[in-house]
Amino acid sequence: VTQSKSLESASAITSYWIGTHPVSIFDISQLYDNPPANTYKPSRYERAVRYYESFNFDTAMMVLAEDPDLINRSRSAALLYARSMFKADLDEEAVHNYQVLRSRYPTDYTVTLESANAIHQIAEVRGDSALYMFAMGLYKTASELNPWQIPQIEKLANETHDFFEKQRQARREAAAQKK
Predict the structure, then answer these.
(1) Helix (H) or strand (E) holding 26
(2) What pLDDT shows up at residue 1?
(3) Which of 12, 40, 66, 151 sits at a 20 to 30 Å CA gap from 21?
(4) Which residues contact 55 (CB under 8 A, 6 or more apart)?
(5) Chain segment 46-55, per-residue pLDDT in tens
(6) In 23-88, which residue ranges form alpha helices assigned H by DSSP?
(7) Does the CA dihedral 9-15-17-23 come out positive or negative?
């Protein structure tokens, strides 16, 4: 499966996994000279995606929070909401929202893997072993949900751990040099 060259400048609105293939939904309203399409008004979710992609995580959360029903009825909106909280360093809220997502979508590979990785990063930063073990359990669940992705899941978990371990090592070395 390949992406059309004409979509290279398009913004992905959301992505899903179908078997071993990631599938993205794109906004193509501004790609072509099509007057009716060019008058398209982005949805609340699409506006939040644009804010998120512009690193305006607090604004993305605000736009989504203006319609709590959207977060409750849309997996993509709820995932974007949790992702925005994580990126805005609202760790407690992010963990809570990822847990809610997991309870709502227990068999969703994307929700499970993203929850695992975000919670893993929060656990590494905090040095929270209970949260770390919870994240490892989510990685295991993601592997069970999509066994074709086990090597990629293991690589993600290991690279995440190694990244934070290198940071810890650098801090230890810097502290030792000060003494």
Answers:
(1) strand 21-27
(2) 41
(3) 40
(4) 87
(5) 899 999 999 9
(6) 35-38, 44-53, 57-65, 68-73, 75-87
(7) negative
